[in-house]
Amino acid sequence: MAVPLIIDDWYLTLTFLISLAIQASGFIIAYTLQFDKITDFCGSLNFFTIAFVTLFTHFSWDPTSFYARNVLASAFLMAWSARLGGFLLYRVLKTGSDNRFDEMRSKILSFLGFWVFQLVWAFTVSLPVTFINSPNVSAPEKGGGNADFGSATDILGIIFWAIGFGIEAIGDQQKFNWKSTKPPKSAINDHGLWGYTRHPNYFGEILLHWGIWLLVIEPARANAVSGQARAALYASVVGPVFITLLLAFVSGLPTAEKPVQKRYYLLSNGPDAVQSGHDPWKAYQQYLNKTSLFWPIPPSIYRPLPTWVKRYVLLDLPFFQFDERKEGAEAIEEAKKKKKQSSEA
Questions:
Q1: Which residues touch 68 (CB under 8 Å, ≥6 apart)?
Q2: pTM exceeds 0.70, yes or no
């Protein structure tokens, strides 16, 4: 059966237009109504739509061509995005707001920048599924092909995805349940998976995207596709690399580590310090010492490890740490100014 031309045979234009339509629509609604409850949902919807549309179009070439690898990779991306999007939407509806956007919501360029970045994120991280479903990779008429399902990379990819999906979903739910109890400001969430890693959700998300990439590369490894298609499948590693770098150095660990450590420091030393015998900052330092930043490791194993191993092998880098000697005084002064401004408002 002849493969219909869908703008381009790599599906890059198709998926870019999908991403542009979703993110532009979301931005217009969110900025016009000063409404931030759909931001994360639009990101997840972007992933789901890319996987659904490229898979559906793939099977429209020939309904009898049932490629298990394409179905599974697409289903994995849709399942992850549906779970995450539904959870984030439910959470923001329950909490009432998303304070990440408080300072940018009314500034059109800053707010637009977020939506542009979300477009790039969804488009780039979806590349393994985009390419495996494209005519140039899967249609014999275009030099594509299929490899027998069940290779080592297929099995490893499924294992990575299943473990990552489970850890992210369980971690998200455990944290939401803990916050729903409205614990004291100085309380520390070290329950469940959060007692093994300070960020099980980020670990799980990174792992599952590496699983999807491992799942799609077998046609390249088995030389079942043309040279260009083989190069494209290997190059789609940019998807999991992008999400890894994003969560490790941009919008994940940096925004969830040092600011939280600073908050616990101020609970002990700031103008609104906890007035009790309990020292929140000391307790949080003990939590940092026994709990891995990223890799899930039992506290009994992680606690006694040398500092250099924790930092340079397990990546709990100084970059993520609040240094009270260098930053403590400035943090206290900043907190005092904010309190004064708040009282005068």
A1: 149
A2: yes
Integer Cα distance of 295 and 199 in angstroms: 8
* Residues sharing a CB contact under 8 Å with residue 84, sequence separation 6 or more, in sequence order: 40, 44, 168, 172
Give the whole-angstrom CA distance, residue 15 versus residue 124: 10
User: Is 92 in a helix, a strand, or coil?
Assistant: helix
Q: Which residue has the tokens 């995207």?
A: 209
Residues of the chain whose pLDDT is less than 70?
1-6, 61-65, 96-106, 276, 345
Cα separation, 204 vs 309, whole angstroms? 22
Are 197 and 203 in contact, with CB atoms under 8 Å apart? Answer: yes
Dihedral angle sign, alpha carbons of residues 52, 124, 257, 343: negative
Beta bridge partners of 197: 292
Which residues touch 301 (CB under 8 Å, ≥6 apart)? none
How far apart, in Å, are the Cα atoms of 232 and each of 124, 215, 269, 307, 328? 13, 14, 53, 41, 49
The model's pLDDT over 38-93, given as tens digits with 9 standing for 90+, comes to 888 999 999 999 999 999 887 776 666 678 999 999 999 999 999 999 999 998 88
pLDDT number for residue 154: 97
Q: Following DSSP, what letter does each residue of 264-298 receive, concatenated? A: HHHHHHSTT---SS--HHHHHHHHHHHSBSSS---
The alpha carbon dihedral of 325, 330, 334, 340 has a sign of positive
- Output the pLDDT for position 189: 95
